[in-house]
């Protein structure tokens, strides 16, 4: 049985479920890391007789090889774990991989010298999606620089907790906005993701690739965009989609030298777990000449023998992980013994050789050298101290970033900016609070929208209400639920409803709510002994235990605990609240019938309060949105993207009371706000943007800043516009702006300004390019308004003709340009023919086809202001040659099949779990006719089946033959089979139709 989750009212997040950075882990690490100097593990000086590896004048490879040669095999094996021990005989300190730094240094908790818990604060920048919405690589690079500097500051204070390998940025593509971790990524577009991640990575590590400020690691390779069963689901990626879309997000930062490694994802890709996927060696290392130190996600290696059951022993699993190109094992918190034992066993049984270990250790040491660890002075960044954290300059940068992240979605009739308002109503559940997310640091201070507007306009000019219901809960026998003033168990005992019996109800959608006790401002939580306690500052933790539902029952309501359901093995079926004879409230009933019914008495209506505040104001600002720990997060996807019903009702009522209503939507993902778009005159969107969120919102509302953010992903009108969350093939399932055929609520790249811009004619320097050529696309942009502003000029292309389905349009370049009123600036964008290549499945390589490409320049993917064309002289893809060995995965279309692992090491097969599925090979050259077909197949289940070869149609097409498939008894045991075909000459579309369970690896036609 899993032990009870940690108390969520603790100032420390419960981290052991995710990464080995808990306070307990840090404390446990102390004996292991005892030799780590307080200054960060840097050697203070080098003697004249120091070994070569301590000589910074030698080339990096020579220093690495010298140190590697001095290590024993046992010492090298010990370095493969996240917590690398000291090696006293060589004067080498301990080293820890991994510090979370997604939008600032996160999980910043440790113990002081006396052992007391302390929470360290850091500069918290906007969430990653907010950084991307700036479309400003220079700004993002400066943010990355600040994060790298603060990483050094924390490291100087306590290297046991804060290592210099930073697990950021996340470059997983946001192809589905329901992903619970949407806020961690940058964009649905690989080009924008590549530009922003490269900027952030360069900022973190500094300008000298040989001397790193800190070491960015890209998360999570590959195709990790769902949380539901994330360790057992397989992302099906046909070759084109894998190359053109998913890999394309990771490659730019690695190729540009802006990443020092990758982290493996939990999921499987085409049936093979990413924790042991050979892509790390076979693909990723081919993107750069520099060594990469790749790491596993927390617990990933153990999943191979656990939930994934991919290998029977940990020795086999860890050997596969190491051979795949993953160098550091993030597993078992600070306890490296299991990893060491497994690797040692793998060595003794021949699963690994010492050279395999050397390869990984060489990559690890290369990183440590580049961080300056073995330099006498600690390298160029060795002198950075704790005083850099939360500096005035970083606070100013955080405000600049938070302002730049805001997107003006709608602004009818000049509603914004608010012109000298006499009285503003600030309304909504997010108007006077700031929320952080799982990967945020602790805020050093907080400026809410209410705070900032009050500071600007004065106390008397701002009227505020959260607009939430205040209720009391009464049992059938008249007892009111009481919350203790000092926090503690709730009881149904009071005969009347005073302040201690009142709770503010916050609606977060999908019927989930939180209850805040009025008496002390703390949230009701699932507590010790299954009791309800008003002890939480905010919803927080791995198991978010502040979530409830009020379920109608028997003329009243029962209270259902709706916290994370990932711990049901311990929690059990009891989810409903019972008031005991002594009044104590416990989560102790299995169904509503056994729960205690309550009458929900509304003491104060949030909607009525909102209407009262809005009615006499010059403008009403409704601040609504999400709570990052509730509305989808790690291990929890969203089921819909609607604004919570209670928040929507508040917005409707306020808009009715005051037509001059502004919606400030503060959340981490696209939201289906069709009603607001139709009825509310002005809408701003921002992410949870850190301590300066309020200042940024006020700056934009009052016109002190002109909004210039742009959406980095499509906002759909409804979740019905989306296929299932596990459908990863964006071409087949028409995902993202590239392929979506409908009309979105807000398109990719959308964002308005307080000024207007006119685009001139689009010009191209070379209307005809060969496949290696490049052209300059230019356009004049004129500010036709009355105030300065920044426009994001976006260049898209569309290939008119192709053998293969092409995107409707695809972003190729962009430029953010500031233009003064009445002035014109010429924007120049580079377009390379090589960037127009796509993956040719018929020949397994990139191809630039001969074609005309539309060049489309505009303010969003749906707001194209000008266009021209470029003719590219490339190749014509010839008819498909099925007479050579053809990988089954290289099909042109498919239905009813999946992609799966051909072996545990390499290769992909087409799997047909049952009959009826098919794969298509379009425009095949049959020449003078194929008389036979050979195939390599496997069939685990008993009995035989067939693969039918058809021409022209999978159901009605002419049958050329049937390939017999015998049982091979094992999914990885393949055999060759042959069949005779009816003669068919010329060119045609060849279908292979699966009549039963089978795996097809390759096939070829024979004369």
TrEMBL record:
InterPro entries: Actin-crosslinking, BXL, CBM6, Cellulose-bd_IV, Fn3-like, Galactose-bd-like_sf, GH, Glyco_hydro_3_C. It comes from the Bacteria. This is Exo-alpha-(1->6)-L-arabinopyranosidase. One of its GO terms (molecular function) is carbohydrate binding. Residues 884-1006 form the CBM6 domain. SMART domains: CBD_IV, Fn3_like. GO terms for biological process: arabinan catabolic process; xylan catabolic process. Catalyzes the hydrolysis of a non-reducing terminal alpha-L-arabinopyranosidic linkage in ginsenoside Rb2 (alpha-L-arabinopyranosyl-(1->6)-alpha-D-glucopyranosyl) to release alpha-D-glucopyranosyl (Rd). It is not able to hydrolyze alpha-L-arabinofuranosyl-(1->6)-alpha-D-glucopyranosyl (Rc). Gene3D superfamilies: 2.60.120.380, Galactose-binding domain-like (2.60.120.260), Glycoside hydrolase family 3 C-terminal domain (3.40.50.1700), Glycoside hydrolase, family 3, N-terminal domain (3.20.20.300), Immunoglobulins (2.60.40.10). Belongs to the glycosyl hydrolase 3 family. Keywords: Hydrolase, Signal. It comes from Prauserella shujinwangii.
């Amino acid at each position: 049985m899993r032990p009870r989750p940690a108390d969520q009212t603790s100032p420390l997040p419960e981290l052991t479920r995710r990464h080995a950075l808990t306070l307990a882990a840090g404390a446990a690490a102390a004996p292991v890391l005892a030799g780590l100097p307080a200054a960060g593990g840097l050697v203070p000086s080098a003697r004249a007789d120091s070994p070569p590896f301590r000589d910074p004048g030698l080339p990096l490879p020579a220093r690495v090889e010298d140190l590697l040669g001095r290590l024993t095999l046992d010492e090298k094996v010990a370095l493969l774990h996240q917590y690398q021990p000291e090696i006293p005989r060589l004067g080498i300190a301990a080293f820890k991989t991994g510090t979370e730094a997604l939008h600032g240094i996160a999980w910043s908790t440790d113990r002081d010298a006396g052992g007391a818990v302390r929470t360290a604060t850091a500069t918290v920048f906007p969430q990653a999606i907010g950084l991307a919405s700036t479309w400003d690589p220079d700004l993002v690079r400066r943010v990355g620089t600040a994060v790298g500097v603060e990483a050094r500051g924390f490291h100087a204070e306590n290297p046991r907790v804060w290592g210099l390998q930073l697990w950021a940025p996340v470059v997983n593509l946001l192809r589905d906005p329901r992903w619970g971790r949407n806020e961690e990524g940058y964009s649905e577009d690989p080009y924008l993701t590549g530009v922003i991640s490269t900027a952030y990575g360069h900022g973190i590590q500094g300008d000298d690739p040989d001397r790193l400020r800190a070491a960015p690691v890209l998360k999570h390779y590959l195709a990790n965009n769902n949380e539901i069963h994330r360790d057992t689901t397989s992302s099906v990626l046909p070759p084109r989609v894998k190359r053109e879309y998913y890999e394309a997000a990771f490659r730019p930062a690695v190729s540009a030298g802006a990443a020092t490694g990758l982290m493996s994802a939990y999921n499987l890709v085409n049936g093979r777990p990413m924790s042991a996927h050979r892509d790390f060696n076979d693909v990723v290392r081919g993107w750069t000449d520099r060594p990469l130190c790749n790491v596993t996600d927390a617990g990933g290696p153990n999943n191979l023998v656990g939930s994934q059951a991919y290998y029977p022993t940990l020795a086999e699993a860890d050997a596969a992980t190491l051979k795949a190109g993953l160098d550091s094992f993030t597993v078992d918190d600070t306890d490296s013994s299991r990893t060491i034992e497994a690797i040692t066993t793998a060595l003794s049984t021949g699963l690994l050789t010492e050279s395999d270990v050397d390869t990984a250790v060489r990559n690890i040491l290369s990183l440590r050298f580049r961080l300056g660890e073995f330099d006498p002075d600690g390298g160029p960044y060795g002198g950075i101290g704790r005083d850099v954290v939360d500096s005035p300059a970083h606070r100013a940068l955080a405000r600049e970033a938070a302002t730049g992240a805001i997107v003006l979605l709608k602004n009818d009739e000049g509603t914004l900016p608010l012109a000298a308002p006499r009285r503003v109503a600030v309304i909504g559940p997010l108007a006077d609070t700031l929320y952080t997310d799982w990967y945020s640091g602790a805020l050093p201070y907080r400026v809410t929208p209410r705070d900032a507007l009050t500071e600007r306009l004065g106390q008397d000019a701002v009227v505020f209400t959260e607009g939430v219901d205040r209720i009391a809960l009464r049992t059938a026998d008249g007892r009111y639920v009481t919350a203790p003033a000092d926090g503690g168990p709730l009881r149904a005992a009071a005969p009347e409803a005073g302040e201690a019996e009142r709770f503010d109800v916050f609606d977060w959608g999908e019927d989930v709510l939180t209850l805040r006790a009025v008496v002390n401002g703390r949230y009701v939580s699932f507590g010790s002994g299954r009791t309800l306690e008003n002890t939480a500052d905010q919803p927080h933790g791995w198991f978010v235990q502040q979530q409830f539902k009020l379920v109608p029952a028997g003329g009243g309501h029962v209270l259902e605990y709706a916290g994370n359901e990932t711990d049901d093995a311990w929690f059990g079926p009891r989810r409903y609240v019972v008031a005991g004879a002594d009044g104590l409230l416990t989560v102790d009933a299995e169904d509503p019938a056994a729960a205690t019914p309550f009458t929900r008495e509304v003491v104060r209506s949030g909607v009525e309060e909102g209407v009262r505040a809005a009615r006499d104001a010059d403008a009403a600002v409704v601040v609504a949105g999400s709570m990052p720990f509730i509305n989808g997060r790690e291990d929890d996807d969203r089921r819909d993207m609607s604004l919570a019903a209670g928040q929507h009702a508040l917005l409707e009522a306020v808009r009715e009371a005051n037509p001059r209503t502004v919606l400030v939507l503060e959340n981490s993902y696209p939201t289906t706000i069709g009603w607001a778009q139709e009825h509310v005159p002005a809408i701003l969107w921002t992410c949870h943007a850190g301590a300066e969120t309020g200042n940024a919102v006020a700056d934009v509302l009052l016109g002190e800043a002109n909004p210039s953010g742009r959406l980095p992903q499509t906002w759909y009108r409804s979740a019905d516009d989306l296929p299932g969350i596990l459908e990863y093939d964006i071409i087949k399932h028409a995902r993202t702006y590239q392929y979506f055929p409908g009309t979105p609520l807000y398109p990719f790249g959308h964002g308005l300004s307080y000024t207007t811009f006119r685009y001139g004619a689009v010009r191209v320097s070379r209307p005809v390019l060969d496949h290696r050529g490049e052209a300059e696309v230019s356009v004049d942009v004129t500010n036709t308004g009355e105030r300065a502003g920044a426009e994001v000029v976006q260049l898209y292309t569309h290939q008119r003709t192709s053998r293969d389905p092409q995107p409707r349009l695809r972003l190729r370049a962009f430029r953010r340009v500031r233009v003064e009123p009445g002035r014109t600036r010429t924007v120049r964008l580079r377009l390379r023919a090589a960037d127009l290549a796509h993956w040719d499945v018929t020949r397994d390589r990139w191809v630039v086809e001969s074609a005309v490409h539309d060049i489309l320049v505009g303010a969003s993917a749906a707001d194209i202001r000008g266009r021209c064309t470029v003719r590219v002289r490339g190749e014509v893809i010839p008819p498909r040659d099925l007479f050579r060995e053809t990988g089954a995965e290289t099909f042109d279309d498919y239905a009813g099949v999946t992609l799966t692992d051909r072996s545990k090491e390499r290769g992909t097969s087409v799997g047909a779990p049952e009959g009826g599925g098919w794969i298509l090979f379009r425009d095949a050259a049959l020449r003078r006719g194929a008389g036979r077909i050979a195939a390599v197949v496997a069939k685990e289940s008993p009995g035989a089946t067939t693969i039918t070869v058809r021409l022209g149609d999978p159901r009605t097409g002419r049958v050329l033959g049937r390939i017999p498939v015998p049982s091979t008894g094992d999914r990885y045991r393949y055999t060759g089979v042959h069949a005779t075909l009816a003669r068919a000459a010329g060119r045609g579309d060849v279908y292979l139709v699966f009549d039963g369970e089978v795996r097809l690896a390759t096939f070829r036609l024979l004369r």
